Amino acid sequence: MYVGCTKNIKKRLEEHTRGYNFSTKMRLPFIIIYLEACTNQEDAIQRERYLKSTAGRRFLRNRLRGYWSSSFDLA
């Protein structure tokens, strides 16, 4: 799971998909399964910090529980 903050989601996804980012290069391919938008950068950074915390990871795991179970059924 990758959590990040950007002003241009298309550009960020392309950078990761092409392997331009060292920290995510080994986890290709990338697909967006969940996206949140904030009205200002301060809120976005605060939300990113939360989602990277233990409680935030737990929130995402619970929020995406249906996705993870259904995506593996298709394989």
Short description:
With 75 residues, the chain is mainly α.
List its salient traits.
75 residues; mainly alpha; 4 helices; globular
Helix content: 40-55%
Number of helices: 4
Low-confidence stretches: none
How far the N terminus sits from the C terminus, by CA atoms, comes to: 19 Å
Radius of gyration: 13 Å
The helix-and-strand class reads mainly alpha
Mind summarizing the main beta sheet? none
Shape: globular
Overall mean pLDDT score?
85
What does the model show?
By secondary structure, the protein is an all-alpha fold. The chain has one domain (9-73). Helix content is 52%, strand content 0%.
Summarize the helices and strands and which ones pair or pack.
Blueprint (H helix, E strand, L loop, with lengths): L8 H9 L23 H11 L2 H10 L1 H9 L2
